[in-house]
Design brief:
By secondary structure, this protein is mainly beta. It has one domain. The chain is built from four helices and 14 strands. The chain has a 14-stranded antiparallel sheet.
């Protein structure tokens, strides 16, 4: 069984890294407290399909991706909103990878976010690659400026978990999943470049991002105006520091900023991700 950490991570980031769109630390602080209605509340599901191309291999199905956003009631009396935002992403291999290379992986990520400040509070990740399973948990204490990351092997409960504690100050951190939804509440403009700060794996990363262009695209939502965003995910001091690659993502140019497609070019080949289905909660009865 071959370890597929780079590929599974790339597929996850293909959508999640939309988070790295133009927002500086100051911009995040200025806008995060907005209580305006968000396009993904109270419930939204996004269903994607990932395809792989390399040389003569063209557009082979490799994975399904599902993103879900919903409200979770909380009994915390100090929580003014009365609920937390729960975001969940699931990525499952299929088709070409599973049949030809006997590659089987599943990744589930869940983020708990305080809605008024849009600050991530907790992230859990379950990574399954064949029989190999890893579970990680990150907690974010903004009052102390600390992120605690813990890695466990559920197949070997007697082993000591790995742990890292990282200090952060000045920057409002997101994780790779909560940042998707955070960015969808922001104003995006072609030509702007910013940094965003992501807490992941016990480290804090600074990711430069540029919004490159706007064009009309045919999507599952119909013909829409979309923005293309480039994110510097690969290279030294980046989220993927041991691979070469390029990443771009397309978001609708309206207030919803729905991710409708993405492309990642790597040494493995090219991964294309397309939105296949959008599910929203029914409108409230009057």
């Amino acid at each position: 069984m071959r370890t597929l950490k780079p590929i599974s991570l790339i597929l996850l980031l293909a959508l999640a890294i939309v988070a790295f769109i133009p927002l500086s630390a100051d911009a995040q602080k200025a806008t995060s407290a907005s209580t305006a209605k968000r396009p993904f509340e109270p419930l939204e599901e996004l269903h994607f399909e990932a395809e792989f191309s390399r040389a003569l291999l063209r557009r082979l199905d490799v994975a399904d991706l599902t993103f879900r956003a919903n409200r979770t009631p909380t009994s915390d009396q100090t929580d003014e909103s009365g609920y937390a935002l729960t975001f969940k992403a699931e990525i499952t291999s299929k088709g070409f990878l599973a049949r030809l290379f006997n590659i089987d992986f599943r990744e589930v990520v869940e983020s708990i976010v305080e809605p008024l400040t849009f600050t991530v509070q907790k992230t859990t990740i379950r990574d399954e690659q064949g029989k190999r399973v890893r579970e990680t948990q990150s907690t974010f204490d903004r009052s102390k400026g600390q992120m605690t990351w813990t890695l466990r092997d559920p197949n070997n409960p007697q082993s000591e978990p790995r742990q890292a504690i990282t200090d952060f100050s000045g920057a409002q951190l997101q994780d790779v999943l909560s940042a998707i939804y955070f960015i969808r509440t922001q104003k995006l403009e072609v030509g702007k470049s910013f940094d965003i700060f992501i807490g992941d794996g016990g480290r804090v990363y600074t990711i430069p991002v540029t919004v490159l262009e706007k064009k009309r695209m045919k999507t599952v939502l119909g013909h829409v105006d979309a923005l293309r965003v480039n994110c510097e995910l690969f290279g030294p001091e980046r989220l993927i520091d041991d691979e070469k690659g390029e990443f771009s993502l397309w978001l609708t140019a309206d207030a919803r900023h729905i991710p409708v497609g993405g492309r990642i070019k790597t040494d493995y080949g090219t991964f294309d991700i397309k939105l296949k289905r959008l599910v929203t909660s029914p409108p409230a009865r009057k």
